[in-house]
Amino acid sequence: MPLHSIRPLPGGVRLGLWHLTEMPLELWPQLAAPEAYRPLLPARADGPRQAQWLAGRVLVQRMLATVAPLAVLPLLQNDAAGRPFLTGPAALVSAVSLSHSGAWVAALLAPPGTAVGVDVEAGRDQAFRIARKFLNTDELAVIKSFGAPGSGPPTEATSALFSLLWSAKETLFKLANRRGLIFRQNLLLDLPPGPWPEAGELPARLALGDAISRHRICYFRPAAGYVLTYCYALSSPI
Length: 238
Hints:
Blueprint: E1 3-9, E2 13-19, H1 24-27, H2 34-37, H3 47-67, E3 75-78, E4 84-87, E5 95-101, E6 104-110, E7 115-122, H4 126-129, H5 131-134, H6 137-145, H7 156-176, H8 183-186, E8 187-189, E9 200-208, E10 211-220, E11 226-233
Antiparallel strand pairs: 1-2, 2-6, 3-4, 5-6, 7-11, 8-9, 9-10, 10-11
C-alpha cells in the first residue's frame, strides 16, 4: 500500500512516509479538494514530479485525518521561498515539512509554533562530489578518521554516508527556516566517531550570529538506497 507508515513522536509530532507507486491520475482523486490544488500545481511539474507533489499532499491529508477527522481539511500551500504551510480549520493548522526523492515521500507534522525539518534522499555520488561545499574541516576530519575516502570514485557505502550528511544539513536548514544560511558555517554537525549504526541520531548546532542552539537529527533508511533525516524543536530553534 502506498501509505507506508504514520509514526507518532513525542510532543504531538507525526512522521509520515509514502511509497510512491502511482501515476498522477491515480493520486488526484485521493485529494479531498482536488479543485483547490489544481491552481497550485507547479508549472514545471512533469509526470514523476507531479506524482511526488500530489503524494506529499495526499500523505499530509492522511496524517491530518488521524489527528481529528474533519469534513474540511486544511489546504497545503507553499510560500514565496517554497516552504510548505497549512491554511484552514484552526484546530488542524500544524507546522509541516515535506520532502521527496525517487519513490519516497516524507512529511513531518507538529503542533503550531514547532520548528520542523525532514529530508529524504536517494543515495547518489553527488553529495560526495560536493562534500567540501557543505561540510567544514572539522566534519570532514571525523569522516576521514573512520576510513571514508577523500578522493577517487566513491563506493556505495561512501555515497550512502555522504548522502546522510547532506540530508542532515538539509533537515537542519529547514528547521532554521531562514534564507542566506551557509551550510559550512551556520549548519553544524558534531559528528561522533564512526562507523555509525544504520539508524540513530547525529548531534547538530544552528549557529545564527551570536546565537547557538543544539539539536539532534534522527536518521534511518526507509529502503535500500535511501536515507531519511528529521528534527523538530517545540519552540523556535533560536
